[in-house]
Amino acid sequence: MTDLKFEQKRSLSRLEAADQLAALASALRQGGDAELEIDPWKLSLRIPDDFHSEIEFEVEDGEIELEIELKWPITSAARTAPSPATEERTATKRTTAKRATAKRTTAKRATAAAKGTAAKKS
């Protein structure tokens, strides 16, 4: 069971996908705390200096799927929070780290929308 999972599936225009990826790229470039707009929500997360990454590219059943995954651990101090204030911060960190999953899903959906546009042009 996960601490938190967010998934959003929707169609995007090429420009909407580009805007979301550009916002993510900017957050990665700056590091620290970042906020990403994922309508109708705002995703806040701490961006670490190092990640584990995985890129998948798959062509199957006439569709192209591009998946970009970034993973990083939640700090060990956050997992052993003794005080209520620290527990609240811990819950927020868990939430924001797990919301990073939403980035992958959004990027994947953006690519799916882009491939639909590319397929129509072919």
Average residue pLDDT: 76
Tell me the distance between the termini: 42 Å
> Based on DSSP secondary structure assignment, what is the total number of beta strands?
4
Into which percentage range does the β-strand content fall? 25-35%
Shape: globular
Question: Biggest sheet, in brief?
Answer: 2 strands, antiparallel
Order of helices and strands: HEEEEHH
Spatial strand sequence of the major β-sheet: 1-2
Give the uncertain stretches in residue-range form: 76-83
In percent, how helical is the residue content? 40-55%
**Helix count from the secondary structure assignment:** 3
Structure classification: alpha+beta
Q: Output the radius of gyration.
A: 16 Å
Report on this structure.
The protein has a two-stranded antiparallel ribbon with strand order 1-2. The protein has a two-stranded antiparallel ribbon with strand order 3-4. The protein has helices at 14-30, 76-79, 84-121, and strands at residues 32-38, 41-47, 52-60, 63-71. Helix 1 packs antiparallel against helix 3. The protein starts with 13 loop residues before the first helix and ends with a helix. It has 122 residues and is of the alpha+beta class. The longest helix is centred in the C-terminal third of the chain and has 38 residues, at 84-121. The relative contact order is 0.23. The chain is built from three helices and four strands.
